[in-house]
Amino acid sequence: MKTKLLLTLTLLIGFTIVKAQTNWTVYNTSNSLISSNSVFGVVIDSINNIWIGTSTTKNLDKFVGSECTNYSNNQIVGVQGGNLVIDLKGNKWVAGDGLVVFTGLKFTNYDGSISGIPNNSIYSIAIDKKNNKWIGTRDQGIVKFNDTIWTKYTTSNSGIPDNHIYSIAINKNGDIWMGTYGSGVVKFDGKTWTTYSAYNTVLPSNTVWDVKFDPNGNLWCGTSNGVAKFDGINWTVYNSYKTGLSGVNVNCFEFSKNGDTWIGTDGYGLVKFDGTNWSVYNTSNSGLPNNKIWSLAFDKNQQKLCIATLGGGLALLNFSNPTAYNEINSTDNISFYPNPATDKITINSSVTNYSDVTLNFYDLTSRLISSKHLLNKFTNIDDLNNGVYLVEIKTKEWSKTQRLIIRR
Q1: Which residues contact 162 (CB under 8 A, 6 or more apart)?
Q2: What distance in Å separates the CA atoms of residue 140 and residue 300, rounded to the nearest whole number?
Q3: pTM of the entire structure?
Q4: Which tens digit of pLDDT belongs to each residue from 304-327?
Q5: Strand pairing report for 304-309 and 314-319
Q6: Going from the N-terminus, what domains does the chain have, and what CATH number goes with each?
Q7: Cα 107 to Cα 127: distance, rounded to the nearest angstrom
């Protein structure tokens, strides 16, 4: 298990210093029993265990603390983007190339030959308050399953405008909201189908990878061109330069109790929006193991944000004080160069008194390797071995962490 101690977030304009201590824990095939490093779905059960679905495996994995248990069955299918949910009875539903339910004792497979699912390519699944399963397929619309009857809605028998259903969210009224491949967002209230697209709203793209409601009832839409939020009347688009989300595929959302919105992207990393400021975690400035994020879930106490990455395994962003980030902005964008380096680095900063600056060099297990107090802007690193380090640049008022590669 690798834990990386980090004390900063990077803003897209300048950066943000995080006073509340955070650290990263990463589970991969090298340090745990996780089935695969490609994790597509993550959910939390009623007793705070972490369940994950992975790609191209026959396993459903459960984490109790740091202990991983594999539940293996030949009926388990490769999971796709976030297709892992827990129903009202505690059963785990795994969707991808088919549909499997795990009761904790046995697996049941629902494939096209024995069920009402029109094909074995499933993009999404959601559970309503009556425990009905709503299943979004690749090209055959959406299917409702009440554990007995399968009801199919396609473009040929309903008002649904698109048969490719990437994501599903259900609001407090029981309305079914869907993100589609080419028709934007669709709402179904049980009788009427309503389409919100780039043609009749300001939705930035008709390809909608994820839809999810925040605690205030706002619908967040992750598109192929940033984010849109819908409060039921007005749309707000977040894809300008200052957000960094312009042209970015947004795969998933999660929401904290203090109002922060966490956004998982396809290659840009993890983004946090507090209503005013935009902050980014990526592989260059944090312990995030991969910038492709497919699913997010807070644990019950919101002490851990569970992050499903494509190729980096399961990452946990741990908060020692999750409800009080206590962030401050710095106008001094301090950094160092060159990177990679050989025997010396140079500090690039407006700092005038370098004696106030300390550089702490950590390895990727958070072990302190060296601490150097600056006399000027140049620092010798010829005493450090080749490798990757997390360098904490620290003063009395703030600290910032950057990754450094030493290569000779």
Answers
A1: 155, 180, 181, 182, 183, 186
A2: 35
A3: 0.75
A4: 999 999 999 999 999 854 332 333
A5: antiparallel
A6: 1-41+60-72+249-331 (no CATH), 334-406 (2.60.40.10)
A7: 18
